[in-house]
Structure formats: structure tokens, C-alpha cells
Amino acid sequence: MKMKAIIVEDEEVSRKILKKYLAKYCPNVELLGEASNITDGLELIQKHELDLVFLDVEMPFGNGFDLLEKVENRTFETIFVTAYDHYAIEALNNHASYYLLKPISIDELIKAINIVAEIKEKENELQNTVLSPSGNSIEGKITIPQQDGFEILDVNDIIFCKADDNYTEIYTSSPKKKLVSKTLKYFEDMLEKYGFVRIHKSYLVNLNKIVKYKKGKGGSVMVSNGKEILVSASKKANLLSHFK
User: Fold this and answer.
1) DSSP 31-100
2) Is 136 inside any structural domain?
């Protein structure tokens, strides 16, 4: 798959190095342009239908996050390339498919490109189709504590779980959510073997309740109760790998 890309980076030397590496080691990337600031970068994004944007974080008159917030319907993936590692958590949680530190490692660059290529191919395959998880649903039950005892839930009745600080909201086919004094990580560990996947820092979803995938800033899924849930960019590849 040939991926159309641009580079948004204020340092000319860094742009030249990245272009050289891409030309030599990543033949499936077609560079359509480059920009040295977020204003010119936004113009390029609006001009082209892109699969991938290489983006520096700190630039004149704004940063990479500011640029991404200006793009309303984002269908491209983002690889941050920066000398500052303190942005990594924010980038991966919210915006980036991958995060490369300068000086760029060729092996890491190739790995990042392969991850993005896999995401784009799977997205194109699954766009606007009825999703079918690659694994079968597993029968099972869990207990959730209540003030007067506990309640038994069939795991296949759970659509998704949402973090609420140190509590977790559990959503089933019932219109009333269940609030449990356990963290989302607790339920992630408990439900992973039943086909539940963490798609966002705040959401754990039953794969068998996902009915549609939509491209977007990080992508989103529609679940069986009609709710649309955003997918973190860093969680996308893992989510898509579960579908045929």
C-alpha cells in the first residue's frame, strides 16, 4: 500500500534527514510536501488527502498538538518526530500512532511505518462494514460488589465499561448503568480473556458488541446500544487486529 504523506518540521536539517531515510528505507511512503510551521502544515493537510503526517511538536507560532486540533475531520495517522521525550504520553494517548525521538533510529522509523500501513489497510478493509471479531465470544460470569452483597453479571451482557476516577461505570442492554468501586484496570484484567479490549484510557469494550468502525481523529466504534466511542490512536492497531 502506497501511503501519501507530508512532513511538518521547522528544522530544515531534520526534514532532509527524514526525507533521505524515507526514500531509502520506506518505499511505500510518497511525500507530497513539507512545511516549516503549523500554518503551512495546515494548508498542506487541507490540500491533500493524506494517509500520514510526520509532525514535530515544538515549532514557531504553535505546536504540533495545536495543528491537529485545527483539523476537523482527521483521517490520517500521525507520527511525532521530536527531540523532547516528555511529550510522549500526551502524544500517544491522544494524537499519535507512533512517537520517534531524534536522532531518528532507522529501525524505529521502519517499525512506525509498518504499524501505520497495517492500520490504514485494516481501516480501509473494515470501513462501513458489519464487523465480525476474529475470535468467538466466551461464556462467563463475574460478580460486582454492591452495598448489600454482590450482583452476578453475564459477561456477554456487558457492552462497555467506562472509567470514572477510581470507579467504573458498566453499561449493559439495561438503560441503567452500574457504578462499581473498582478501577477500569481491575475490569480490564478480569475481562480480557472474555474478548474485552481497552480502546481508550477511559473505555473498555466488548468486541462482540462493536457493530461499526469509523475513521476519524483516532477512529471510533459504534456499539450495540448506539453509543459511539472514540479510539485512542495508540490503541487502534491492537483493536483492528481483532477483526476479520
Assistant:
1) EEEEESSHHHHHHHHHHS--SEEEE-SEETTEEHHHHHHT-SS--SEEEEEES-GGGHHHHHHHT-SEEE
2) no
The answer to whether residues 237 and 97 touch, using CB atoms and an 8 Å cutoff, is yes
Residues 45 and 156 in one domain: no
Each residue's pLDDT tens digit in the chain (244 positions)?
A: 899 999 999 999 999 999 999 999 999 999 999 999 999 999 999 999 999 999 998 887 888 888 988 998 788 999 999 888 777 777 766 678 888 999 999 999 999 999 999 998 888 877 656 666 777 667 889 888 777 778 899 999 999 999 999 999 999 988 889 999 999 999 999 999 999 999 999 999 999 999 998 887 668 999 999 999 999 888 888 899 888 7
For 68, half-sphere exposure in the C-beta direction (CA atoms, 13 angstrom radius) is: 25
Strand bridging mode 210-214 / 203-206: unpaired
Residues 69 and 99 reside in one and the same domain: yes
C-alpha to C-alpha distance for 130 and 147, rounded to whole angstroms: 40
pTM score, two decimals?
0.76
Asked if 149 and 184 sit in the same domain, the reply is yes
Domain count, the chain: 2
The CATH number of whichever domain residue 181 belongs to comes to 2.40.50.1020
Question: Which structural domain, as residue segments, surrounds residue 230?
Answer: 141-240
- Do 159 and 118 have their domain in common? no
Backbone φ and ψ for 172, nearest 5 degrees, come out as: -120, -170
With vertex at residue 83, the alpha carbon angle to CA 230 and CA 48, rounded to the nearest 5 degrees, is: 50
